[in-house]
Amino acid sequence: MFHESLRTLFWREFASIKQGAEYFHVSKPTITRWLDGTVPINPMAEKLLLIKALGYLPNDLRWSGFRICEKRAVFITPSGREFSPKELESFVFWRDEHRQFVEMYGHIEYPKVYPAKENVLPFRGGRRMNAAECLADCKLKVHEPVVICMRIYFSGYL
What we know:
The chain is mostly helical. It has seven helices and three strands; from the N terminus they run ααααβββααα.
């Protein structure tokens, strides 16, 4: 990465040198040397900066302007609309409903704009989600769980 593009990308992603140093787990003088161009940037830090700048989306023109907010866990479109993971999961059903609605009644001229639904964390209030069912809990003969576990282990999934 060229020196100018590194500086531009760094200041677009971070508000201060301290914030960048905390993100890359390096000292402030190291960040200063990278930005001055006296020391070349670590290749892994360069890749990490590119991933952060892209927002974990592919480097493709069709994804230009889309972002992911890590703190709120929402997907942001170029027009500023936000989608939570649950909304994206149910998008297919909404699309089908919308198409049927348009076929029946036509388009609405000025639809309301709603904010993204709250993205609830998996662990809240000291309550944990239920664990997945274990193979050993199944009603199998005594030797069958061992055989199944051995098959899974030797197939490379464990």
